[in-house]
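[09:14] KT: can someone run the structure on this one? pasting the chain below
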Amino acid sequence: MDWMLLLVVAGGAVAVWRIAHQVRAARSRREEDWDTRLVERLRRGGGIDPFQPVEVDFFVALPSMESAQRVVAALEAEGFAADLRQIAGAPDHPYSVDARKLMQINEVGIRSVSSRLRALADAEGGRYDGWAPGGEVLSAARSAAARPPRRRG
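[09:31] RB: done, structure tokens below
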């Protein structure tokens, strides 16, 4: 009887430890974010060569013309080509910056630029709105996705 109780307690302790370990690992591991999912989808769809640089568009929404101009100046100094537009019907962030850069599409590079733009947007009271690959990459990805899968055999 004492052995049985000891085994039940030990089994319970192992189960609790395993649950705690899994929860801790889940917290420390970054959840697969939108950037990761899009990069992976583009790679699997055959639309990009991860070793070739392509034009990538990054978007930042800002509350004033002055803050948008400061963001444009900072991005141009970092090698981006940036356009500023006023967006009708956007009361909180009526100005949009479209920043383009030629780069390889990989998780590390995209996350790095996304973090930089998120910090820049936050400093100016704006919002980072994400990124999209250039038109030629999207066209290639769409046409690759439309092709029927190859049969092996």
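[09:33] KT: thanks! The CA atoms of residues 84 and 123 lie 18 Å apart.
[09:34] RB: yep, looked fine to me
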